[in-house]
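hiii, so i know i said id send this last week but things got crazy w the move. better late than never?? heres the sequnce for the chain we talked about at the cafe, plus the structure i predicted for it. fair warning i was half asleep when i ran it
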Amino acid sequence: MIFNQWYVILESREVGKKKPIKVRRLSQNLTLWRESNGKLNCMSDRCCHRGASLSGGKIVDNNIECPFHGFQFGGDGKVKLIPANGKNAVIPESQHVHSYLVYENYGLVWIWYGDKSQVTEKPFFFEDLADMSYSTFIDPWNSHYSRCIENQLDVVHLPFVHKTTIGAGNKTLVNGPVVVREGELITFYVDNILDDGKTTPLKPDEIPDYEKLFHLQFHYPNIWQNFITDKMRIFAAFVPVDEENTLIYLRNYQSFLRVPVLKEIVNYLMKLSNIVILRQDKRIVLTQIPKKTEVKMDERLIMGDKPIIEYRKHRQELMTSPQPSETCHTCGKGEC
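okay and structure toks below
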């Protein structure tokens, strides 16, 4: 995983008000719960006392109570009460678990994975989606999240994997594509055409007025959007579960229809269509070896793979940046 990043890990609706939940994310077992005012907390799902799962406990006075011996933890991960020692006992600083900074907006939950002293104010989001309605589909993939992301950066596969849906028309020849990176945002412009047996694909710098072409965007570490029209988008969060599994949170956004009942019907139909398309991808991606990608690996990439090449290069740059300085009591490495 890339350190010092805000990762989308789930949707807000998945965390209720009455009890904690347990999730596996970023190769860690986490528990999330809400305080009485709705504030969301996230920490390692392992009690520092005897290793029990905290998510099996309950919420008491805005703390999470371990079901084993009643230790109570605040949202900062520190133990607030050790029942066996009494309410007036001094609690050692060592009695804590790793907690995560949480950001919640747009119906999504992010956690900061890295050094808390390096945290940015808030995570990036495609702000123009905020006024659109959406429906969500969550799909588990037995693949590393890098493979899942690269599939959505791949403009070459459309007429083969999606020949009955978005790839219909047999447009196999790929001009470019043009890839523009601004900080941690990658925008790539797509121009696939029919191969007449005579035309040579244009190189990226040979494509005029590329800004007018159909485009898609990816922002590190794990969100993407397909810019279909000003009033219709597809959004995805590629949520790392561990090194071999990913949850894809796929949303279809639209603002062309706002009538309550009709809006929901359209959103549902759009979701069904996106499920079909995503499952066409899934059938192939799950066969890719190895599950995780790197900058240098046994693959022979072509010009049409330019978005993937750019993704891998910058991901490697981010992966080699300094790791968190914070040491975690639970794992001793600052990684849990």
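btw Confidence is low (pLDDT under 50) at residues 326-336. thought thatd interest u
miss u guys!!
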